[in-house]
Specification:
The chain has 506 residues and is α/β, with parallel strands linked by helices. 38% of the residues lie in helices and 16% in strands. It is built from 21 helices and 18 strands. A 5-stranded parallel sheet has the order 11-14-17-10-18, sandwiched between helices. The chain has a 4-stranded mixed sheet with strand order 1-2-4-3, with helices on one face. It is elongated. The chain starts with a strand and ends with a helix.
């Protein structure tokens, strides 16, 4: 009995495992059976494929058709299996040669007319097919994804008829242009300069340190002091992604159904979810698990404005991903892991009425408001800074000596190159062993830091985070070793600890 096997790929997080579409035609009453753990969208392929084959001028076999999607224990969803199922039926009924399917993979959704439609989330498919060096046939509307990967053995299909002619060897399908120029960052995209922020010298310095060492930053201050303005200008201080990092980020966005424009391919992502977002939208999940905001911010910045307004259980979901750099979503059918190595920037008011100094709220109300942020969550911020009100006359004074984002970005890039050359990672990712071996601390200065941490009542995690911040300050100043002045400056970026201590004393 005629059997045809067609190669395709499933969607499993940011992976694209291989799937074999096996088509068997047998005698009996006409029927179309689809097996192999298909979900509703895949089961509906039976009607789309039948109409597409008939309307494209092919003969639909009046036999018992059995289609198996192997492996059977891998869930299948989406319309991406339409094209391989149709090709398998044509090959099994000998309307196209079986040998033409060798070393080919097919992915695409079919219209009832036989046209091949766009499928979302195909970037991981192209990456994995390029590793196997297979010829991959995709919808022509997915051309932008293929050009990002630059895989030369991609072929684009527009209609079943032209694809059948290609498999018969009668014509060729279009491919990507091998003479494409490398994408360059579009510097015309609007990004505001940090020099536009009036005053706030300490906050700007903390932002530079955070950008240089990839540290998490919490800004405390009354409304209107420029916290959101400062956070939005963070992106201009960070260096652009390299090609492999950009492809990794683009794959996550592709799986989430969000395409990245070519002009923004090398730009780090900046995500700013509203405080009413749920834990699933932030971390990821759903019946068919999709990446959340923390994975969409991978290699970039996650900005939480008014962080105290987020539900506490939502914020505590961030604790493990901030440490491990990935999030695992477990469901009955599968367990998916998405990368989530993001930099967290948060902003909040120091009291529920906005200002802690001239507060209408009592100390108990302020402490209850600050208690929305758990201690373990606060521990994961390397720097917490005050963003105070501007002094009288600051708004009308000329800001001629303020540094531009480009000048700060040069120091940030130089500091990052120093860190990578010394330890292979940025300072925020230094392990305890690397801090001892590579950070070049003086024993007396470490004793001073330990005594300071004990007096402030900080955790061991904070002790190591202050060391990492001090190492970054030294790198920005191009100092070989970490001096006590660097440690003292790092201890100065503990505004939340000072605020909680002052409230406890009153």
């Amino acid at each position: 009995m005629p059997i045809a096997c067609v190669a395709t790929r499933a969607s499993h997080g940011v992976q694209a495992p291989a799937v074999q579409v096996e088509v068997h035609l047998s005698n009996g009453l006409p029927a179309f059976n689809l097996v192999g753990l298909p979900e509703a969208s895949v089961k509906e392929a039976k009607e789309r494929v039948r109409s597409a084959l008939i309307n494209a001028g092919f003969e639909f076999p009046m036999q018992r058709i059995t289609v198996n999607l192997a492996p059977a224990d891998l869930p299948k969803q989406g319309g991406r299996y339409d094209l391989p199922i149709a090709i398998g039926i044509l090959a099994a009924s000998k309307q196209i040669p079986l040998e033409s399917l060798a070393q080919h993979e097919f992915v695409g959704e079919l219209a009832l007319s036989g046209h091949v439609r766009y499928c979302q989330g195909l970037l991981p498919v192209i990456v994995d097919a390029s590793k196997q060096n297979s010829t991959l046939v995709l919808p022509i509307d997915n051309r932008a994804d293929a050009e990002l990967v630059g895989f030369e053995k991609v072929r684009f299909a527009t209609h079943l008829q032209s694809l059948a002619a290609y498999l018969h060897g009668q014509s060729q399908l279009p491919s990507i242009d091998l003479n494409l120029e490398w994408l360059t960052l579009d510097k015309t995209l609007p990004l505001s300069c940090i020099s536009e922020v009036v005053g706030q010298h300490q906050a700007k310095q903390a932002l530079e340190i955070a950008a240089a060492g990839n540290h998490n930053l919490l800004m405390l201050g009354p409304p209107g002091t420029g916290k959101t303005m400062l956070a939005s200008r963070m992106m201009k201080l960070l260096p652009q992604l390299d090609y492999h990092e950009a492809l990794e980020v683009a794959a996550i966005h592709s799986v989430a159904g969000q395409s990245i424009k070519p002009a923004s391919f090398y730009r780090r992502p900046f995500r700013s979810p509203h405080h009413t977002c749920s834990a699933i939208s932030l971390v990821g999940g759903g019946a068919q698990p999709k990446p959340g905001e923390i994975s969409l911010a991978h290699r970039g910045v996650l900005f939480l404005d008014e962080v105290a307004e987020f539900p506490r259980k939502v914020l505590d979901c961030l604790r493990e991903p901030m440490e491990t750099g990935e999030v695992s979503i477990s469901r009955a059918a599968a367990k998916l892991t998405f990368a989530s190595r993001f930099q967290l920037i948060a902003a909040m008011n120091p009291s529920p009425c906005g200002d802690a100094d001239n507060a209408r709220a009592s100390n108990e109300q302020i402490l209850r408001y600050l208690a929305k942020l758990s201690g373990p969550f606060l521990d994961r911020f390397d720097l917490t800074i005050d963003v105070p009100k501007l002094p009288l006359g600051a708004l009308n004074s000329e800001n001629t000596q303020a540094e531009t984002s480009e000048k700060i970005a040069e120091r940030v890039l130089r500091s990052r190159e120093t860190q990578l050359a010394r330890s292979g990672v940025l300072n925020s990712q230094l392990s305890g062993k690397q801090l001892k071996q590579d950070a070049l601390f003086n024993d007396k200065d470490l004793l001073f830091l330990e005594q300071s941490v004990n007096q402030l009542g900080l955790s061991v995690r904070s002790y190591h985070r202050i060391q990492r911040v001090a190492r970054t300050i030294a790198d920005l100043q191009q100092a070989r070793g970490v001096e006590r002045s660097h440690i003292a400056q790092a201890l100065g970026y503990r505004a939340m600890d000072r605020l909680l201590a002052s409230l406890a004393r009153q």
